[in-house]
What does this fold into?
Amino acid sequence: MDYKKQIAEILHTTLNSSLELDKIKQLIEVPKKDNLGDYAFPTFLLAKELHKAPNIIAQEVAAEINDKLFDKVQPVGPYVNFFMSKNTVSNDVINQVLIEDSNYGFYDEGQNKNVPIDMSSPNIAKPMSMGHLRSTVIGNAIANLLTKRGYHPIKDNHLGDWGTQFGKLIVAYKKWGNEEDVKKDPIKNLVSYYVKFHVEDVEHPELDDEARLWFKKLEDGDPEAQRLWKWFSEVSLKEFQRVYDLLDVQFDLYNGEAFYNDKMGAVIQELRDKNLLEESEGAQIIRLDEYNLSPAVILKSDGATLYITRDLTTAIYREHEFDFAKNLYVVGAEQTYYFKQVKAVLLKMGYTSAENMHHIPFGLITVNGKKLSTRSGRIILLEEVLNDSIDLAKKMIEEKNPDLPDKEEVAREVGVGAVVFNDLKNERILTEDFNLEDILKFEGETGPYVQYTHARAQSILRKAADVDLSDHEYNIDDEYAWGVVKQLEKFGAAIKDANDRFEPSVIAKYAVKLAQSFNKYYANSKILEKDDGLIARLGLVKSTQVVLKEALRLLGVKAPNQM
It folds into this structure.
């Protein structure tokens, strides 16, 4: 149902002009005010060719078009304004949603091509704080959106399981830790050791030298360093899994940084063979002057690798392993410059696939305006926030609907969904300040508001369960219903836009607008009145329920049938 294309074809036939079909389609706009129609075509570009004023051209074109696709075609100054036929469009849209169900909005752009997504990526031996929420839920939503456009996303939880922080942790554990405490409460105690290290190294900088030494031992395969590293990794993954279970997020791969240890040597040798490395103060660097970037340090003076060494290896591995269409990194905005360096080095190495490497940055998450930090000990645990949100949802359900079936499960879906939806509703680059009470409100632009609208639609459908909605005409002429139809028709375009910009907030905003349109319709219509329009009204309700559920699913949010 590409109405812009249909209008462009009608205009192309009507206009006595050299304008090509694609150009006409590009020029078609959506007016900002409803009273100006559903689409508008500006005639400015035709004035010179046709030797007429734009308003005269608009009048002539509007007078010539007579098509059942439109209720009316009206000239307004230099614009031809198209008022779509409510009956034709509503019947098209509702029929398509009811036939395609959850497949509505799917388009096979990707043809099952692989798209690895580097996402979540918590650090071993540190808790999953609120700071990890963003990469996890943004990456998950982008994966869902890619599937909706025919791609095959490969979600890779690129764990931070390597690096100098392990040297610090080993030093801290050996100085202040013990095995019993770690077994009792692994993450809490490991973090306390890590925080203590950063307190102590202010006055004892020699601790940093010890940490570097232990990390070098780890890289060289020292048995004690390896034993501690594996133990820290195992206990951390168990803790992480509880959070992923709450969020209902799964991964295809857990290829952490350590996975690439035995693969970095070949990449370093390739850099040498291509004469890209040069020595600087004992370190091995690659100059990136032609990209207006500072040099990338590949090896430290002691021969130890860095993040960029592993990320270059990761990108090359993914190209060979997956032959990807796109290679995505859902990583905070503070790493933007770094990813420019990674991309530049890959291009300099001759990997043209780096053109399809995309860093998907996002802003910070703050709580009461304060940035979170493991190093300083200012941590808000993600698992605790999710559980608090579930508990608050339970309390609200007990107050408003204590007899609700499966209320424990509904509370989980609403509580977790509120946190996820809140994270995704604003453009990802913006900083998000978190407030639990605000995100669980049942009014405003919140997850519970959209979920409740879906549940309301389901309630209406249960009351009319005996009505057969298949194979009918769904003619709508009510203005409030028309507002809903117009939103339903935009779903495919919203999915495309969200995919093209790696921007899940497009879908969250869409879901809110659809919910708002439906609630206006609900407040101003007697949907269940038994008259000739009942089937059409129920078809519209069912279509809204289907699309709201699918929009929420794309965001990684559940849609309860009752609330």
Observations:
- The first strand starts at residue 39 and ends at 42.
- The chain has a mean pLDDT of 94.
- Residues 14 and 529 are 43 Å apart (CA to CA).
